[in-house]
User: Which sequence fits this backbone?
């Protein structure tokens, strides 16, 4: 790892913490001082980090938060300590939670996984090279739909998402939202945010609720979370604790997103560049699934993520609250796609030219396959194939929400400040060095 400070002290703490856990110590390992060793300013810096690990009995085994958060909505730069309660944009972990919302509709018999999604989108969705082949919700949820993110991403308010897929639409972009003509729906994995924007549009048209409201009513509020997509439903007091996504620019930390947080109860959404701003009350239902960022816009804290991890690991329940049947959650964790090394059937590197970060994918759930560094998705060492969950990476935040199907452990983490390119690479996987360090601290890996 390049330039990461205090590694000897950090690993010494890991050894001590792991030894205590091995002896069955009841007290959790406080990781705050060890996480501090990861923090630094500069292009390769990390401004804050946090992690929570629970053992198979649901008891916190290790936890901590370190660093600082920029205070949003301030006219002069102000800082506060980063904490496990500070909400932030969790990036692509949002997809997995959106998938839970859609699977509720499947459980209720209001949606299916293998029917033509055109039935619930309000327009006919077809890859131009395969006009007679339906695209299904299973394919959207597993990134095997044959779709890609086009140059007009994200389609803004007052514009319809269908305009990205219909010839002549103002966002058609010459067909760039579709993959190559030799890759039929269902045959190739290509990670694309637009899949989940289409899922969100289906949720609106099936449920009759706006996506952000539906997710609050169906998933987030029943789990006792003060959280929401694009700040929708997040309380005024929680918004005051927001941690903007930061990157180091021209010698200082700069907010990439959430430098300004809307006042409660307002939400944020992409405004058009070619027309007057759109009022939230005027947003039409079931027309544009991009608006509340199902692909990455969930604002949660690490404590919220910890509660969500418990929901996944305990079969759809948190305490007495039931959201999904265990059989439905199990179905989400069955691979729809597994990378074939001999006959490539997808882009496991997400187009970034790095070691394969995807080895397998279910219904909104990442399914690591590798146990050695050459696999790329060996995030948790040799036990990686036992883990399920999702990574997030956007605007400086690097996040993860995972659970171990064998041991019952859960792990959530977040690191803020990661640069867009030229990142310090990890040793055992395609993750960055600071992500691997956080996981090492929590799990005691070498």
Assistant:
């Amino acid at each position: 790892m390049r330039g990461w400070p205090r590694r000897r002290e950090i690993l010494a703490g890991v050894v001590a913490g792991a030894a205590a856990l091995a002896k069955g110590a009841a007290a959790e390992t406080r990781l705050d001082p060890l996480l501090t060793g990861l923090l630094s300013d500069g292009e390769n810096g990390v401004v804050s980090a946090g992690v929570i690990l629970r053992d198979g009995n649901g008891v916190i085994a290790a936890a901590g938060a370190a660093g600082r958060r920029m205070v949003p909505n301030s006219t002069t730069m102000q800082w506060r300590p980063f904490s496990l309660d500070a909400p932030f944009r969790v990036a692509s972990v949002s997809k997995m939670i959106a998938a839970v919302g859609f699977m509720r509709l499947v459980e209720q018999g209001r949606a299916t996984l293998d029917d033509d999604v055109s039935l619930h989108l309000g327009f006919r969705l077809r890859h131009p090279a395969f006009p007679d082949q339906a695209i299904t919700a299973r394919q959207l949820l597993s990134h095997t739909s044959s779709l890609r993110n086009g140059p007009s991403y994200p389609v803004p308010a007052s514009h319809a998402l269908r305009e990205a897929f219909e010839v002549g639409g103002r966002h058609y972009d010459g067909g760039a939202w579709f993959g190559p003509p030799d890759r039929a729906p269902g045959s190739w994995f290509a990670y694309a945010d637009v899949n989940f924007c289409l899922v969100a549009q289906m949720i609106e048209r099936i449920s009759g609720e706006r996506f952000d409201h539906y997710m609050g009513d169906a998933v987030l509020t029943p789990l006792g979370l003060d959280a929401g997509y694009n700040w929708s439903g997040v309380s005024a007091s929680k918004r005051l604790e927001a941690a903007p996504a930061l990157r180091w620019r021209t010698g200082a930390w700069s907010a990439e997103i959430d430098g300004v947080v809307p006042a409660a109860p307002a939400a944020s959404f992409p405004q058009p560049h070619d027309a007057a701003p759109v009022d939230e009350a005027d947003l039409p239902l079931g027309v544009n699934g991009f608006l509340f960022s199902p692909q990455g816009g969930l604002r949660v804290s690490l404590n919220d993520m910890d509660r969500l991890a418990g929901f996944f690991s305990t079969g759809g329940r948190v305490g007495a609250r039931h959201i999904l049947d265990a059989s439905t959650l199990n179905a989400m964790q069955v691979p729809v796609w597994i990378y074939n090394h001999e006959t490539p059937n997808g882009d496991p590197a997400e187009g970034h030219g790095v070691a394969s970060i995807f080895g397998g994918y279910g219904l909104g759930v990442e399914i690591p396959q590798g146990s050695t560094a050459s696999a790329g998705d060996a995030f948790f060492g040799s036990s990686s194939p036992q883990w399920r969950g999702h990574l997030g990476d956007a605007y400086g935040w690097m996040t993860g929400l995972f659970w171990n199907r064998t041991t019952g452990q859960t792990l959530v983490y977040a690191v803020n400040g990661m640069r867009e390119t030229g990142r310090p690479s990890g040793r055992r996987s395609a993750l960055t060095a600071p992500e691997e360090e956080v996981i090492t601290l929590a799990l005691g890996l070498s």
